[in-house]
Write a structure and sequence with these properties.
single chain; alpha/beta; Rossmann fold; 5-stranded parallel β-sheet; 9 strands; binds adenosine-5'-diphosphate; binds guanosine-5'-monophosphate
């Protein structure tokens, strides 16, 4: 990977607040940080746009990209494929901007284990009950999907100490300030 821009890897369980925090960050630092839009085989939610939130592939398209070695990392998360495009990341880093990844714990750990240089940040919930409440309140997934995500969260949280930085997203403002301090201090 090129060294002009920095790779910022943000991970943590579904519903912890990654999208909320990162949207704020990208809005405030438009000229410094660029988001790497992942590919997924998951169906788009009603509020999501192709090419903005994700590149929505069919499972077949996704598998073809795996064969063509297009991903820096990919994983099956909650039953769907998700992957980071090597090409997109390289393009951002070459431009001198920082490249931001919002990926699951397996993906983040994979990059770390493969010595991909970056700033590794784990966002954790104040508790599992609060995480479940956030997923329910977000109302984007059926209850069985939410329960699957909460179950996965318990496993994912076991990896948090491997990360360089851990932020507990309790009060949003405080968590956001911690995130900015990590990236820009
Ligand atoms: P993720 O991207 O990690 O799946 P989201 O950013 O979609 O999580 O957040 C899940 C839900 O929790 C959203 O409805 C969001 O508004 C809410 N949320 C995020 N951070 C906080 C916080 N600190 N306190 C209360 N609710 C939050
Ligand atoms: P959601 O379906 O809620 O958008 O995302 C589910 C999980 O997939 C989240 O934890 C998110 O961080 C993760 N994810 C999104 N894109 C990628 C990716 O490119 N690679 C990996 N490994 N995980 C991803």
């Amino acid at each position: 990977m090129n060294d002009k821009g920095r790779l910022i890897i943000v991970t943590g369980p579904s519903g912890v607040g990654k999208t909320t925090l990162l949207k704020r960050l990208l809005e405030e630092y438009k000229d410094k940080i660029c988001f790497s839009v992942s590919h997924t085989s998951r169906k788009a939610r009603s509020n999501e746009l192709n090419g903005i939130d994700y590149i929505f592939d069919t499972e077949e398209e996704f598998k073809n990209r795996i064969k063509s070695n297009e991903f820096l990392e990919y994983a099956v998360v909650h039953g769907n494929y998700y992957g980071t495009s090597k090409h997109q990341v390289q393009k951002v880093l070459d431009s001198g901007m920082d490249c931001l990844l919002d990926i699951d714990v397996q993906g983040g750990t994979y990059l770390m284990m493969n010595n991909i240089k970056g700033i590794y940040i784990f966002i954790a919930p104040p508790s599992i009950d609060i995480l479940r409440e956030r997923l329910l309140k977000r109302s984007t997934d059926p209850v069985d999907v939410i329960e699957k995500r909460v179950k996965n969260a318990e496993k994912e949280l076991q990896f948090k100490d491997k990360y360089q930085y851990i932020i507990i997203n309790d009060k949003l403002k405080k968590a956001y300030n911690e995130l900015k301090n990590i990236i820009f201090d």
